[in-house]
Amino acid sequence: MVKKIKDWITNNTYHHSQFWDLKQLVEKKEEQNLTISLCLPTLNEEKTIGKEVVIFRSELMDRYPLLDEIAVIDSGSEDQTLEIAEGFGADTYLADDILPSIEKKKGKGENLWKAIYQLKGDIIVYVDADISNIHPRFVYGLVAPLIHRQEIQYVKAFYDRPLAVSGGIRPSGGGRVTEILIRPLFSLYFPELTGIIQPLSGEYAVRREVLEQIHFPIGYGVETSHLIDVYTKYGLDAFAQTDLDQRVHENKPTRALGKMSFGILQTFIKRAKALDIIGDISDHETILRQTQAIEDSYGQEEIEITEEERPPMIEIEEYRKKFNRKLD
Question: How many domains does the structure of the chain reveal?
Fold first, then answer.
């Protein structure tokens, strides 16, 4: 087991600088007749979305035609996110308007799932829209392993995650849910997945034929679900990971991370039960209880968090018609 993980890390871990020759990368993409779509899932990201679209469009469409489309899939922003993105040349969509015959749901995972239907690429790369140090490497560093190696199916980003604090950047921190929750769970039940340095990173590139076959939790559990489902179906060798150096974004408070962890844990239990990895566990509650101080006393806030999920896109009739796909 240890040798397997070590060998995988050695053979399937990259640094974005290995793919600096974008001209060559575009040539390889065109030789394979691949199309690549970039999805930026958004909710009230007017501060950062414009810069992301400008950089990706100017460098990876106009200068080097690596991307075939840049699309914003929005959850219903109340700021100027969509207007700014469209003004700088991105295609913009409201998640609620995609597959309108299906019951509407809210969540980042919902946006990612609907992107499979809306976008045309053979490869879809997802990049969060709140990155303040955005750079073309957030795309080419992820799609390059898929272009160079046909056996790779899913590429995750990893990076230093400094905490954005007043007065500057601290050179450490971030990834708290990974180290406190996900890595211990993977160590217990999916030890080979511990080789993935940042399993919860929001940046990854995936082949369409993989994305259409897996479930999509609509909330916090989407990345965890992806890793377990792809690993179960294709094995560890289907993954690669790329070091993107550093990612700077606003850090979430501890209470928000508690909500995230609660949703992720629901997803993990559901997957582990389906795979018969853990014993019988009765249906769990969906109420997260957090204690808070109210003046001179303490009380509990009860928060309903239900980690619903979407089926594999291949099961949706409209998708099969649009892309001429068939159920196995």
Answer: 1
In a domain, 328, yes or no: no
H/E run at residue 158: strand 154-160
pLDDT tens by residue, 115-154: 999 999 999 999 999 999 999 999 999 999 999 999 999 9
For 86, the domain range is 2-323
Maximum mean pLDDT: which of 29-33, 279-283, 307-311: 29-33
Residue 171 lies in a domain: yes
Note whether residue 23 is domain-resident: yes
Look up residue 62 and give its amino acid. D
Give the Cβ contact number of residue 102 at 10 Å.
12
**pLDDT, tens only, 174-228:** 478 988 898 888 888 898 998 898 999 999 999 999 999 999 999 889 999 999 9
Instruction: Quickly count: other Cβ atoms within 10 Å of residue 283's Cβ.
Output: 7
Q: Is the dihedral of CA 193, 224, 45, 316 positive or negative?
A: positive
- Write out the DSSP string of 180-235: IIIHHHHHHH-GGGGGSS-TT-S-EEEEHHHHTTS-EESSTTHHHHHHHHHHHHH-
Instruction: Indicate whether 195 belongs to any domain.
Output: yes
For the chain, what percentages of helix, strand and coil (3-state, to nearest 5) are there?
45, 20, 35
CATH code of the domain in which 299 resides? 3.90.550.10
pLDDT value of residue 277: 86
Cα 277 from Cα 137, distance rounded (Å): 37
> So what's the pLDDT on residue 2?
74
Token duo for residue 112? 């990612």
Tokens of 59: 């460098």
Alpha carbons within 13 A on the beta-carbon side of 182: 30
